[in-house]
Amino acid sequence: MTSEQQCSGSRIAGCSFSIHPMSDNFIEIITNALENVDTSKVWMQTDDVTTTVRGKMVHVFDVTKAIFLHAAKTGEHVAFQGTYSIGCPGDSDGDVYMAADDKLQNADTVKDMQQPVSAKFSLYPLGGGNYMDTIYEQIEAMKQQVTVQSSHYSTKLLGETLAVFHGLEQVFRATEESGSSHTVMTVSISANSPSHT
Amino acid sequence: MTSEQQCSGSRIAGCSFSIHPMSDNFIEIITNALENVDTSKVWMQTDDVTTTVRGKMVHVFDVTKAIFLHAAKTGEHVAFQGTYSIGCPGDSDGDVYMAADDKLQNADTVKDMQQPVSAKFSLYPLGGGNYMDTIYEQIEAMKQQVTVQSSHYSTKLLGETLAVFHGLEQVFRATEESGSSHTVMTVSISANSPSHT
Asked: pTM for the whole thing?
């Protein structure tokens, strides 16, 4: 792979994400969140801009959801920004994690966490002409999970963190299963914001 | 427009973005940054997740760059997350701003600001099959502006804020002018991070 916009050649999924605690204690909050999450079933790498996890789709969502929840439970205003991707032509780092089983490592520790959030997501099925139809279908599907509102360049979601992530995973999986060869989904989530209404 | 993933029908550009100061003073930092930036040539709306600006491409970049710089000059660890979009089928809010002239409202106040950053960007020319070629061409073009490194799902940029934004604007404009009917570019920028190397 010679390009700098690397991604995966098989059906390995991944997410490049950042956790932003709006607090002087941001380092401690991020470090504690990472320590509380079992990342043994994903490839993981952190640099000074984002953290990237890659592996089976179920574990990518399990890990990102858990890290966000452990940061948000501090009560500080915390933002999550993530780009989920699957099917991008690219490298093979982390392919070994595709042999993991499907048992979620973090579902038990977060299953009772209540954390209302506001979120925005955008879905980009790349390389095909009918991508807007796919987007509209998946926005309809999301309404089964959480409150959905119009927004510029994205779709706004209001609800509990667990429901929001469940909806996001469903939408991402359905888009991939519908035949999109390369799917990207960007997500912004805000918890404990003083401007939440 | 009946869908919730709204965007523009003409060639109006826009950006949905968030500024995340990792500081207890995040409200003051964001408020001060907004007060120091002239937003008179863009349509602007803020909710509890992001701020959206829309108008001519030059003003969208002028305003987002200036807001980030005014927040980063506090010396706090500040992250910027933005989704730039042009050509998405959609609504017509803000079309009146397309009548503005091209004189930049904030270029003078930021032109001497030095602020090294680490950034990641991803380019998504939607609806066409040769999108990866466009991406690779634009990554090459970016190397004229800043240091470029490989990264998963994105391209990493290291340099001065002004050079990074100049490169991003060039890449976004070139992609649109190459005939992409709907172009999305996501950008993550980090300033004053304790983990910058």
From this structure: 0.91
